[in-house]
Amino acid sequence: MHEMGIACEVLAAVRSEAKRHPGKAPRKIGLRIGELAAVDPDALRFCFEAITRDTDMESLELEIEICPFRFRCLACGHEFVVQNYDSQCPQCADMKTECIGGQELDLAYLEVEDHEPSAVGTKSTQ
Ligand SMILES: [Zn+2]
Q1: In terms of DSSP bridges, do strands 117-118 and 97-101 run parallel, antiparallel, or are they unpaired?
Q2: Are 99 and 71 spatial neighbours (Cβ–Cβ below 8 Å)?
Q3: Confidence class of residue 5 from pLDDT cuts 50, 70 and 90?
Q4: 18 C-alpha vs ligand 1 centroid, how far in Å?
Q5: Overall domain count for the chain
Q6: Is residue 10 in a domain?
Q7: How many CA atoms lie within 13 A of 73 on its CB side?
Q8: Tens of pLDDT, residues 18-27
């Protein structure tokens, strides 16, 4: 199951980030997953719970944010959410558009015990 690999990667990132906060336990982790990243959030949550069970990370809460499939028009700069794979600009009807979202798999934030959010900036590609 490929979500298991991602869950392990996420946990490794949490552990390395937690080292920068000695004495504070990670409480909550935010993940950004693109609509097209081919990741099942429920499966990922299940895997994450499975690998953290009976460990010091057991109480870690996983929050998943789904990012929509988005495009930006190169002609007018309009940003829009793509439906039915139609990438034409809804504002000016130009066909020259670029994908700006939908394939993310990012660690958005990590909260440690004192609820101080910490930017991580870890990017993971498949
Ligand atoms: Zn446009």
Answers
A1: unpaired
A2: yes
A3: very high
A4: 44
A5: 1
A6: yes
A7: 16
A8: 888 888 889 9
